[in-house]
Design goal:
mainly alpha
Length: 364
């Protein structure tokens, strides 16, 4: 009887743990195939074939790359600060993965009787949410965790005891701190329109909005957020921290094997999480206008279609990342900083002021 009582208490945590594992597994698989998709799409844009040897059409290439990283020789610089050197890639990947727990992957399923589960999902719980953890200040949580991610890059540059790595780490710190201000300011307009910092609440606010998606009334904020996202993830044309022509490979010059793979994964996970954030804030998240007229809200088909739509919007942003990489040249560092401080931040603040004025007069 005591064992049954313990199991009854632990069952909700088991369900949550399974959800966490499934969520991270799905994200890591999407990240792996984003790398393959990038190589294929860039090859197509440049008149090449791209990976096509490992598996049919090259679909097993990500697993071959992972095996290569695991089996490669791990070289550690003699003069490096060993503990920090090994810790840096773990910090970068952990901070990239953590925001995933607060994103809603779809609407809660409420039309199913969950009493068939042996011990239920918790006292009074009748809905199965497609969110790993619901936090009332989800926006602040995401910005807080992603802000810490810069430490992984900065520590990697410092601990490697290499001038190229150090320059890459310093560049990345300055770049990410600068563009975080514009990114944070671009989100304020959405928060004011939604009246909440909860990511689920922002999605429901867009359902009630006249425009359905906040990208319409907050197009300037979307524009600023999108450009800042490219800079925050160190992607072209803002990939100055790892500028190969100047700094060899930037902050991960001295990294190899699995530690380099962790940095590689962190970059693509950051792309994925930023795309999720942009989708939730400006494109309604999982919400599809008119879908409630086809399927019952809270049903499994409604949740499945909403989830597929959410993933589709994210993939559209990932394709945009790749398209920009194959199209635009890299900025100089002085151009990057001037653009962030002299153009992007003033535009974001002007959008905040305009939104305050509109919200004030509408709510009078």
């Amino acid at each position: 009887m005591e064992f049954e009582s313990i199991l009854k208490t632990a069952f909700p945590f088991i369900v949550i743990s399974i959800g966490v594992l499934m969520g991270f597994q799905i994200v890591l698989m999407i990240v792996a195939y984003t790398v393959l998709g990038e190589r294929k799409l860039l090859g197509w844009m440049q008149g090449r074939i791209g990976p096509n040897r490992v598996g049919p059409w090259g679909v097993l290439q990500p697993f071959a790359d992972l095996l290569k990283f695991i089996l490669k020789e791990d070289i550690v610089p003699d003069k490096s600060t060993k503990f920090v050197y090994f810790l840096a890639p773990l910090v970068a990947l952990t901070c990239a993965l953590m925001p995933i727990v607060v994103y809603p992957f779809g609407p809660a399923i409420t039309t199913v009787d969950w009493s068939f589960l042996p011990y239920g999902l918790g006292e009074g719980v009748r809905a199965l949410p497609l969110t790993i953890a619901k936090i009332d200040v989800g926006v602040l949580f995401v910005f807080g965790i992603t802000s810490v991610g810069v430490y992984g890059i900065a520590l990697a540059g410092w601990s490697s005891n290499s001038k190229y790595s150090l320059m890459g780490g310093l560049r990345s710190s300055a770049q990410m701190i600068s563009y975080e201000l514009a990114m944070g300011a671009s989100v304020i307009g959405v928060v004011m329109l939604a009246g909440t910092l909860d990511l689920n609440g922002i999605i429901y606010a867009q359902q009630q909005s006249t425009f359905r998606w906040f990208i319409i009334p907050q197009f300037i904020g979307f524009f600023v957020f999108l450009i800042s996202a490219f800079a925050e993830t160190n992607r072209t044309p803002f990939d100055l921290p790892e500028a190969e022509t100047e700094l060899v490979a930037g902050f991960h010059t001295e990294y190899s094997a699995l530690k380099f793979a962790l940095f590689f994964m962190a970059e693509y996970v950051n792309m994925f999480t930023v795309s999720m954030m942009c989708t939730v804030l400006f494109l309604g998240g999982w919400y599809v206008p008119g879908l409630s007229h086809i399927f019952e809200v809270g049903s499994i088909p409604y949740a499945v279609v909403s989830h597929v739509a959410f993933i589709g919007k994210i993939c559209a942003f990932l394709v945009l990342y790749i398209w920009v990489r194959g199209t635009l040249p890299r900025f100089r560092f002085d151009q990057l900083m001037n653009f962030g401080w002299k153009f992007l931040l003033p535009v974001a603040l002007a959008n905040v002021i305009f939104t305050i004025i509109v919200v004030f007069f509408v709510n009078r």
